[in-house]
Amino acid sequence: MLLMQRVFTRPQKGRLFWQALLFEIDQLGIDSIGIVAFISTFMGAVVAIQTAYNIDNPFIPMSMVGWTTRQSIILEFSPTVISLILAGKVGSRIASQIGTMRVTEQIDALEIMGVNSANYLILPKVVASVLINPVLIVFSMWLGIIGGWGAMLFSKLVSTHDYIHGIQIDFQAYIIFYALTKTIFFAFIISTVSGYFGYQTQGGALEVGQASTKAVVVSSIVIILFNLVLTQLLLG
Amino acid sequence: MIEARNIDKYFGENHVLRDVTCKFHPGKTNLIIGQSGSGKTVLMKCLVGLYEVDHGQVFYDGRNFSVMNIGQRKEIRQELGMLFQGAALFDSMNVQENVMFPLNMFTRKSAEEKLDRVNFVLKRVNLENQNKLTTSELSGGMKKRVAIARAIVMNPKYLFCDEPNSGLDPITSNLIDLLIQELTYEYGITTIVNTHDMNSVLSIGDSIEFIYQGQIWWSGSKEEILHMGNKELNDFVFGMELTKRLRK
Q1: pTM of the prediction?
Q2: Beta-carbon separation of A104 and B75 below 8 A
Q3: Domain boundaries in chain B?
Q4: In the A/B pair of chains, how many CB contacts fall below 8 A?
């Protein structure tokens, strides 16, 4: 709590904060586009193929493949699974970067200068994650649905017409709100938990590795728990 | 002047500093010497507030640092510079950005003024025109000099150097020592240097505090240190084969 109090204060120098924020958006967000795109596309394809193979009742229209893919991707896969992947990629990066700065006395150097090191190092990462993760998740939703369509196109299990009809059936904008709300919570969890473990590192390279692992494990557990709570609150 | 009064510091059951009282004078290179593990770095970190003392007080020109709140300490910290054992340069920045960082953070100078100041201090530490080098391109001695440039860029009143020549060859060590001494005399800085290097002691030790098992065991100057009858001090001073032979 004390650390969070130090993190969430007004930045000492606005211009430096904006510079750091843009840098972190690039490092935490733009740099994650590749892995998000790859996983989303293939997961969308797998969801569509599995659904198509499991529909063996002639009374169920094949457009249900598009509907199921959309619902799976938007409600759960993109916001939760991609957030878990980002907890691994981004969380370990944040914890190891800050942890290394701690053990090499760079954080002490900031403190000696009179800089609020927690605010200077962690706040831009939290704000960047909260801003850029929803963009990544919307991108993931699109690619997941396109991946499903691509799989149907190549496997010829479902026609493009049926698939597109399926993804338009009973669409409610609220599910996007639900997904993005979860995403913002998860982005906050990943950046603050990882920042905390990195900042508290004591020792050397071994401890930096341990801090990084703890950050990923704890972020993932907290995300799973919050997923249940938020789902109950927003959809219950 | 920096003054430590009756400082005690514990880490759990380990009593690291025991009733440490000493003074560090302006315009002098004040050395804290002692064996590894004797408490030198802990004392320095207590002086700058990176560790909170369990008992005792630290004064900066009569201002009681130990009772100050974060805001008041921030003001004092803008008057001090510190050179860390591993230089502690920011990896994500090049030489110029490292040295300019305190100026960007705490001054409203124009970009041109800041660059002039950076170039001035880099020239002062013999790193002229090395602005764009990254930290990974620097040798150990260069890193120390960049760290000194960063420490003095704000014209500090107090300069702390933790093992400034650890890991450096004797010639580079000597250059770093002399640079610290020159800057101290030139700007009248209260400089405190932690070291266990006898060459540094004999070269720049205007005022010396010998710390042994967490206590100030002896205080004096480089002229006096070779002629003392104190056993623990002599064990330290003449611990090296070279100094033993010189003594004979």
Answers
A1: 0.88
A2: no
A3: 2-91+158-172+180-247
A4: 51
